[in-house]
Design goal:
This protein has helices at 2-9, 16-19, 38-43; strands at 30-35, 62-65, 68-75, 81-87, 96-100. With 103 residues, the protein is of the alpha+beta class. Strand 4 and strand 5 (96-100) form a beta hairpin.
């Protein structure tokens, strides 16, 4: 469990407009779902994200369709939720962190 918590606290905090689709490039997001896996998303190189970082082409301009297990949900004081997900085949070995504000 401590590894999952460590990953959650490493989650980016500066991309609020990208997370809620209110950034200037939101209209460039393809709404046709692309099936992938947690492993494939994890294989994408990490980018430093700050308040002025533009939407990352490909990674943040694609609607991803994943089958996952929700490992942990951590509510934040700003009503955000940090959600740790994993592959259905290896949820404990392959967690990734995703900010979720949809509920």
């Amino acid at each position: 469990m401590s590894r999952l918590l460590a990953l959650m606290f490493a989650c980016g905090t500066g991309a609020g407009t990208v997370k809620v689709m209110s950034d200037p490039a939101a209209m460039t997001v393809s709404l046709a779902p692309h099936h992938t896996t947690v492993a494939a998303i994890k294989a994408v190189s990490r980018h430093h994200v700050g308040p002025a970082t533009p939407r990352i082409a490909g990674l943040e301009t694609t609607l991803w369709d994943l089958r996952v297990v929700v490992c942990l949900v951590k509510p934040e004081t700003d009503e955000d939720r940090h959600v740790v997900i994993g592959d259905t085949s290896a949820a404990r070995q392959s967690p990734i962190v995703s900010g979720a504000t949809a509920w």
